[in-house]
Amino acid sequence: MKYSKADKVLPIEIVEIIQQYIDGEYLYIPRKVGKEKSWGEKSGTRNMLDVRNKDIYSKYLKGATIMELSSEFYLSDKSIRRIICEQKKKCSNST
């Protein structure tokens, strides 16, 4: 999240009103309802993890073991199993 200086983006009258309630402290202004971004959407992290998880599932289907995948992707065997299960559900829902 990027910070903006209130006096650079708001009219001085609004800044003065806000200062009556909170003077010199940080204030978070949430996005409008319906304009929220989901986790990882802006940074691309969600997309990167989706690609990684598809890769894990593909390698699993080609015969890679849970332990091999765990070692290759630096994840616990429990995480690998969860990813495989999630990918399996996605594939069965899309058909």
From TrEMBL:
Residue ranges of every copy of the Mor transcription activator domain listed in the record: 12-91
Name of the featured protein: Mor transcription activator domain-containing protein
Pfam family, one: Mor
NCBIfam families assigned to the protein according to its UniProt record, in alphabetical order: CD3324_fam
Native species: Clostridium manihotivorum
PANTHER family noted in UniProt: MU-LIKE PROPHAGE FLUMU PROTEIN C
